[in-house]
Amino acid sequence: MDRAWTLRGVEDDDAGLWARVLRGDELALAALFDRHEVRLFRHASRLLTHREDAKDAVAVAFFELWRKRASVRLVDGSPLPWLLNTVAHCARNLERSGRRYRALLDRAPVAEPVSPPHDDSEVMAALRRLPEREQAVVVLSVMEGYPEREIAHVLGIPVGTVKSRLARAKTKLRGELAQEGARA
Fold this sequence. Notes:
By secondary structure, the chain is an all-alpha fold. It folds into 2 domains: 2-107, RNA polymerase sigma factor, region 2, helix turn helix motif (Rna Polymerase Sigma Factor, Chain: A, Orthogonal Bundle), CATH 1.10.1740.10; 121-183, Winged helix-like DNA-binding domain superfamily/Winged helix DNA-binding domain (Arc Repressor Mutant, subunit A, Orthogonal Bundle). It has helices at 2-11, 14-22, 26-47, 51-67, 80-107, 121-128, 132-143, 148-155, 159-183. The longest helix is centred in the middle third of the chain and has 28 residues, at 80-107. It is elongated. Keywords: Sigma factor, Transcription, Transcription regulation. Residues 127-181 form the HTH luxR-type domain. Belongs to the sigma-70 factor family. ECF subfamily. Pfam families: Sigma70_r2, Sigma70_r4_2. This is RNA polymerase sigma factor (Sigma-70 family).
């Protein structure tokens, strides 16, 4: 009984948990997460503006810890320094992508709002069933009234791709709405 307690005590420190992680033990990774998550979140929160981004940075760091576990360098038997460094890298990447996203939004032209159809519940439901890439083109073109060239610029795709996605989406929507009408 004392031996089991002693082994458990040894395995409960970072070095013991890390040895289990190296053997592929996901529960040991979860234990490390529980142990260090608050400290890592606090670190990420100091580097990022949004709470959700800080949570994402911690989650990505643990994903990377698991993925790169064979090459992670420990300090005094603990992966915490590696995790702190990885959280900082993730935070920089999240800030950079946030800046790119805001710049993209700043470049997007502002269109006059178009009033939606009177009974749009069926149309919106059909639109939500489209693949995300086709949804974006339909929303920008049909609902917001942007020209194809501006849509191509904002989405970073060729004008021909905008046209083909729009045609494909309209065909799908027509088919779905015709089926809805036949059922009614």
